[in-house]
C-alpha cells in the first residue's frame, strides 16, 4: 500500500540499487507500521534536476499511503529516507524534498480493483 517514488539526478550506474530498495522498504514499513510485502519503492536516477539553481546531487520523493501518515511519522520518514539517500547516493539532506500523500483505499488501485 505505501509507495515511495524517489527521483534523483545522480547516476545509478554501478550503484547497488538493491540495497537502497531493501533499506527503503524496511524503513517505510517499520515507520508506517505496514507489512513490507505491501511497500513499493520506485527509484529513478540520472533525471535532470536543478535545486537552488544548480545541478549538484539532489532528489525528490513522494510517498503515498493509505493511513499511517501524520506530522510525527512524516518527520521520521523524512529523516530516515534522506539519511539513506545521503549515505548511498551522496545526496545531501538539504537537497532532498519529500512530499506525503495520505489517501483512501478507493483511490489506490491494486490487483485489478481498488483497496
From TrEMBL:
UniProt cross-references to InterPro entries, sorted A to Z: Macrophage_inhib_fac, Tautomerase/MIF_sf
A Pfam family of this chain: MIF
A cellular component term, taken from the record's GO annotations: extracellular space
Record SUPFAM superfamilies: Tautomerase/MIF (SSF55331)
Top-level taxonomic group: Eukaryota
Annotated GO MF terms: phenylpyruvate tautomerase activity
Similarity comment text for this entry: Belongs to the MIF family.
Alphabetized PANTHER family for the sequence: D-DOPACHROME DECARBOXYLASE, MACROPHAGE MIGRATION INHIBITORY FACTOR HOMOLOG
Protein name, UniProt field: Macrophage migration inhibitory factor-like protein
